[in-house]
Every structure is written in structure tokens, then in C-alpha cells.
Amino acid sequence: xxxxxxxxxxxxxxxxxxxxxxxxxxxxxxxxxxxxxxxxxxxxxxxxxxxxxxxxxxxxxxxxxxxxxxxxxxxxxxxxxxxxxxxxxxxxxxxxxxxxxxxxxxxxxxxxxxxxxxxxxxxxxxxxxxxxxxxxxxxxxxxxxxxxxxxxxxxxxxxxxxxxxxxxxxxxxxxxxxxxxxxxxxxxxxxxxxxxxxxxxxxxxxxxxxxxxxxxxxxxxxxxxxxxxxxxxxxxxxxxxxxxxxxxxxxxxxxxxxxxxxxxxxxxxxxxxxxxxxxxxxxxxxxxxxxxxxxxxxxxxxxxxxxxxxxxxxxxxxxxxxxxxxxxxxxxxxxxxxxxxxxxxxxxxxxxxxxxxxxxxxxxxxxxxxxxxxxxxxxxxxxxxxxxxxxxxxxxxxxxxxxxxxxxxxxxxxxxxxxxxxxxxxxxxxxx
Length: 432
Description:
The chain is mainly beta. The two termini are 42 Å apart. The chain is globular, with a radius of gyration of 25 Å. The protein has six helices and 29 strands. It has helices at 40-49, 104-113, 177-186, 239-248, 316-325, 378-387, and strands at 2-8, 20-22, 28-30, 33-39, 54-61, 64-71, 74-81, 86-92, 118-126, 131-139, 142-149, 155-160, 168-170, 191-198, 201-208, 211-218, 223-229, 253-261, 266-273, 280-284, 290-295, 306-309, 330-337, 340-347, 350-356, 362-368, 392-400, 405-412, 419-423. 14% of the residues lie in helices and 47% in strands. A hairpin with a 2-residue loop joins strand 6 and strand 7 (74-81). Residues 1-34, 162-167 and 298-306 have low confidence and may be disordered. 22% of the residues are buried. It has a nine-stranded antiparallel β-sheet, with helices on one face. The chain has an eight-stranded antiparallel β-sheet with strand order 5-6-7-8-9-10-11-12, with no helix packed on it.
């Protein structure tokens, strides 16, 4: 038997009742209510574990059920499989700057590692195999930090909020349907997903099995890349990778490690450091095959912004892919833009920017167009005449990706807000 439970179609995990969203004009729109089928095993387990729960609101998300409720005025969220398996419970402590409820071991860790930081939010996380706190820290002039830590002070994980990296925060409701569907299919058990727009890519940052993930998709839903934060102190690297490090980097320390997955490859990105030596970044597969090694110049930087690069520091696979695509490029300059390598160059009188992943996968090319010497396709001109008569094209670029090609036109008109238009040569508009 299943019960029909009334729920908001989309609700914020820590909220209750009807979900609302705010439009660009500030108008508040209440989302339509729907019903969720809660299987009897889930109902039974929920009542057994939370007999005093109040104001329970259910939501079906892919193959999991989420329920928001309160117990003794504390906000709770719980996740269940449809077969009744309990996955996780989050308890909002609502302590604000107060620290009562946290163990001395946790307070000591924060004092030692984040002096001067303030606790902004605390949640208690319970899973079938663990219990820990998720603590958000903030400090003026610094990006927020989230730590996952047990009561005994042992750190599980931590990550810094993405700020100042050229990304643009995006509300989940504005993510293209193709992207959302591709993400849900690939990561149905993702928790606490945050979306960001990076150029023409959509980035989902989320937690799964207590590990931080970052997944990138094109606007048509094509999966590009996933980066999984890897705790090398607690998770053993493949034996072949360990042997390579022992042979070639004896005495070096792994400062940061990520597992990178792409449609065509899977490898580890290891940032190595040694006192008195310049930091090194290795890209290496599980079988010990080295993809590339890059000297980081000894600055200990984290490449969250743009860094000028010497061509000698570009991975061979990236340089080879670039030369194959653009053998006659002139005046080439390289940068590291977060997780991508970017080459700026001149070709046939135009300025180009091309982006590659660390394994040499081409991501996109941006070509700056001079409309005094280059004509837009007839279908694009007709679209502009019909929809933007009297507007001026302030800037125009041609964007090429492995699966699409379109123009980005910046339009302006006196007394109107500027418009950025994405349009293909046939006059169709991508779903951005």
C-alpha cells in the first residue's frame, strides 16, 4: 500500500511548505503542488525513527525520497531509498555564531586551522555508517569554507566555495532540461547540489557518499568531465601509481589529489610538494601511465583564477591537440583558467581563444568577429531584423564546440538593457 503525501514540487532542503521563487522583477511565484507516492516500507521506517516528527513534507528526487520535517523545533531532512533503506539524516542545529553542542575537539581543530574564522552554520549528519558535523565557516575577505568533521576532531573533508573564478552562480530552476536530465541520470544520489555557469559549461558541485564532486556539462546535456576530490591520506592510490611516485618522487608529499573522469579517459591529478622544490602537478592513470607533469613554478598557487603559463609547462597532450587543430596559429599565449588550459592566438586576421582539458580534450573555441569585414549568415540577419530592429551589435563571437556552433552577439540600444543573444547560423537559438 502507498500513501499520497502532499508536497511542493520543488522545495529547499531546509524549508517547509510551499516552495516559492523570485523572478527578475522581484515577483514571487508559488510553485504548483503535487503528490508523492511514499511506499509503505518508507512510511514505516520514518515513523519508527522519527515518531515525534511534525510538518513532514515529501519530495521524490530520481530514485530517492526526501522528507523535510521538524522535531522539537529543529529542522530535519531525511533521505530514503524507495525500498525503505535509510540513507542519511541532516539536522539543522541553527546555532549561528554559538558553539554550544560542538565538542572541544572540533573547536580546537577550528581554532588551530581557521583562526579568526566565524561559524556561520552547523548541521549534524547521520548515515548508517557515520555521524559528523557539516560546519560552514566565514571570514571577511575570504571565500567561505565548509568542513565535514567528526566529534573526535577527525576531518573527513573540506572545500572552499567557488568565488572569483569567472563562474556565475545559477539557480537550479534555470538549468537547461537536457543538462538537468543528464545530471540526474548520472548522479541520482547527489546531495546538496550547487550549480554554476562557466563560459558555455554548466558545473554541478555536489556531495555523494561524503565526497565532493564537480561535474561539467554542455548546454545540450553532453557530459564533459567529473572531478572527484580524493583523500590520499585515507584512500589508497592504485599500486601502479604508488610505485611511480616511489620511483620518481621519493620524499615528496601529495598536497592535493583528484580523480578525473572524462568520456574517453580516467586519471588522477596529483599536486606534489617538497621543501625547496617547485611544486609539480602530475596527471597519471591507475595503471601508472603518466599523461603529463607540469612544474607549477613554486608559487604554491591554486589556479583558481587565470595564470599565465610558459609553453614548456603545457602538458604534451594539450600542446599536441592544439597544434593539430591550429597548425598555423600565430602569437600564441597560454593561460590556466581554473581546470582548463586556454590558448589565445591570431589566425587569418582574427583573435582566437581555445580551451582544452588537461588530457588534451578540446572543449571549445571562441573567435572574435569583425563585422566590418565579416557578414553574419542570412538567417541570423533576418532574425535580428525581425526581433531587434534598431539595435546595434556591440560585440560578436563565433563559438565552436564538439557538438555545436553558434554566435554570441551583444546587442545594445539607447534606453534599453543590453542583450546577449545566442544564435546558430540557421537562425535557431540554443537552449541556454
